[in-house]
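Please predict the structure of the following assembly.
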Amino acid sequence: MFKVLRDLLRYNREFLFGTLLILIILGLVVASFFAPYDEMMTYAVIPDMPPGPEYWLGTNSRGQDMFWQLAASMRNTLMFGLVVAIISRIIAIVVGLVSGYVGGKTDQIIMAFNDTLGALPNIPILLLLVFVMRDQMTWGVLALTAALLGWTHDSRLIRSAALSLRTREFTRHAAFSGMRTGQVLFREHLPYVMPIVFFTTMNNLIWAIGLEVTLSILGFSDINRPTIGGMIYWANAHSAMVAGIWWWIAVPMLAVVILFLGLFLLAMSVNEYIDPRSRLARMGA
Amino acid sequence: MSHLLELDHVTKRYPVGGLFSRQSIKAVDDVSFALDADRPEIFAIVGESGSGKSTMAKMILGNEVPDGGRLVFDGLDIGTIRSREQREAFMAKVQPVFQNPFEAFNPLTPVDAYLFATAHRFCGANDQSHKERLTDEALQRVGLSLAEIKGRFSHELSGGQLQRVAVARALIPSPKLIVADEPVSMVDASLRMSIVNLFRALRDELKVSIIYITHDLATAYYISDRVIIMQKGVVIESGDARTVLDNPTHPYSIALKNAVLPPDPKAAAAAIRLRSAAAAR
Amino acid sequence: MTAAMTTERPVTQAADVLTIRDLKAYYINDLFGVRREVRAVDGISLTVRRNEIYGIAGESSSGKTSLIKTIAGAIRPPMRVVDGSVSFDFGGKHIDVYAEPGKMKAARWQNLSYIMQGSMSVLNPVRRIKHAFNNFAFRHMGLDRAAFRARVESHLQKLGLDPNVLEAFPHQLSGGMRQRVTIALATVCEPEFIIADEPTTALDVLVQQDVLGLIKEVQERLGSSVVFVTHDMSVHAAITDRLAIMYAGRLAEEAPTQAMFDTPQHPYTAHLIASLPRIGDISTRKSLGGKPPSLANPPSGCRFHPRCPIAIDRCSKEVPDMLPSAIGGRVACFRAGEVAVK
């Protein structure tokens, strides 16, 4: 494992850059646990201070230190994205593998449902839910809803791979070895769809974070809980650009760019490692 | 006299053309034969691509259901198998050996996983030592041992070894019938005969009947007791393997036999010249 | 020395078309902490003469595919030519493949062409056959469109193909027909040198004979040299003039085909020939024990010694050289000629 990381760092420039960018983000997340004051607190420091030696990223009009705000926001936003990505990945893998392997009528029914769900517009549904739920709408419920909406495209991708795996001779061999469907799917087929899973995780993470930012900017989330979108919402609410508090907008935007770029580079380079073809080449097949 | 396997006017059609066309081709057309339960034999099905021989294999293994006729194995109509219990009981008695050993073993799964799964499902072996004992016994029969293959991946073994592992796996449930679809066509020449000889030994020592599906008349002649020759789904000639292949009567069988290149440069070159002369005419 | 060897056919031009000297081509991989060096071609010297079919036989991972890739100058990283040379002599035009890569590019298709196993890798499935001819051959012929078309049609006719196939799509033709089209494609420029890589392996037996007959016929008419690669000894028996046996990246034996089948000198060759089943003979065929060696970690000394029935101590310690054999070829074995075919 260590050797793998060393070689990835040594030979893969994308991996090196991606790691550096993600380390910055992770550093922020870790730092958020050592914040000197509660992230929800307002007027803890002098408002509207530009970035400088005392406040590295400045302070906003609500009297919050931008650095600690950013750290807490990054943690919350990343947490939201990861929860969405993990739940939706599990659904996508199960639905895709089962649908592709079982085939026939089952496949048609599952895919009809899949495509119907995929055709529904996400943002209006979420907005509707926010209006209906009002105060019960916690970030957890929002994450679950987003996860339930965000797997359809990827399950179709996984299904298409599973369809071709189904016709491979080793699948028949496994069936005649008495392996049950579950074993065939998760022991024989899963490794082959892992590159798809990995790549779509990155896309899904970016989609989920984008969704959270969108909803927060519009104010349709718990606005007191600091998130990247929430920071921009408050900046807009205080007309930060007009007031010349540019760092209030620039800081969260820059952070999102770093996060997305880092995720993209990492996914791209790790994919090369996890892909069965290159895996087999390493094993000497 | 009871039959181990009986095919009774079996027909299989595949639809051809688009969504709205009702045309179909007969992949297997009215095939009947029977294997005797008391007398294990190697039964060869010979044909070129498109002869329907692989469709036959799939029907005998229960992977395809015939459109007409019946396949009866040991008193059970294979086409009526529905429940998992029935299917697993059937699989314990009829096992396949596939064409390409490198395709039949998932390159990312150790090869012993297939053997252990078979021992677990069909022999009720639950603890590891029991599975290993059954697996090792089967591997010994094909001239291997568990120590040689434990934890190995398919690319670490030769095609011949892998194919023997595949045969060993098929032997674990003590099946009555093994269906081998082109089992040696992907195996290297220096190892090919070891697999072919193995089938002979299985028939003589373990009393297993083998359906040997091939396009290669030379190996069919070498090991099989009876043979049927198929062309476009139809059996055109059948009977005792030596009798049929020594003196084929159907024009297609004669052409097939003449197409087998003799392993002798003068005769082989003459065969080629003869064929191009015939084509030119 | 080479000219003194016996051949079945009178040698019209004694010169060699292809000369390979001590060629070594390795796959060198260094990926994610795993370094692997696979010696696919390990010190091979051979010559192919004008107007002959030279067979290369070998099992999977014997290095035969790597060898012909190296000959064709078609190698890519991680494969590298470590040592040795490959040179062609096309009627006075001398090309050293690895010293002058540019010259090789110009010679391709005009002087040297390929017949491959899968015809679909040459024929674009969504374009008519004539586009394949236009793409591959038009530039090299130096003719105008009409003359080119006439030339292609007459060439197809000579090969017994209906010129109408030019207007067909590949999927409309049968597998055997497609393979014949690729042969026509490979020979339309009348190249001096043709590389045939398992051209009949995926075909049915009846079609296989036709294709072999066609290759032989074209070769005889053009007087070109063919390097014919297949694992199937019966095919070699049918078509090749001289035959080389590869084992684990090296040559085991090379001899005129007929002589090799009559009295093989190397125990591996003897086994390959003896194990072939034939109709009318049901005597038990033996198979070699052991497994083909891994090229990443080959055995010491003679690479065949762990599986050899007549190996002696010396075989595991010293590498046998390719020396002239009793049957007018070369063999790499300390006990050459001591195994007879039954």
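The two ends of chain C are 32 Å apart (CA to CA). Chain C touches chain A at residues 29, 31-34, 36, 296 (CB under 8 Å).
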